[in-house]
Amino acid sequence: AASAAGHADELAARGRAHERHLEHLARDLLAGASPEVLLASCQRAGWQPPVSLTAVLLPAVQARPVYRALDPSTLVLDDLPDATGVLLVPDADRARLLRQLADRTAVVGPARPWARASASY
């Protein structure tokens, strides 16, 4: 039982570390980091860059529920100082994304090349 619990703890710790790497990548993208920094963040996070990213701004409390309904490669930040959440949606079909967000208070930016996601924000 102790071995199983230890294994479960290790998996949980890895999951938290992976999530931290994804959040760090999202912050780098929004900050307009250099391509070298972005590629290093992608590698650490195990995240395959898409062609484009679309920023979605919405109340932070809605970020995780909406995130779960989108592409699993979507990046999410829900701890920004102004209680705003940001989703960076890969290769989004804009019309479909707008339909998915129709019942939410959200602002959808334009699609931009992934390394220039800050231009969608």
From TrEMBL:
Domain of life per record: Bacteria
UniProt name for this protein: PucR family transcriptional regulator
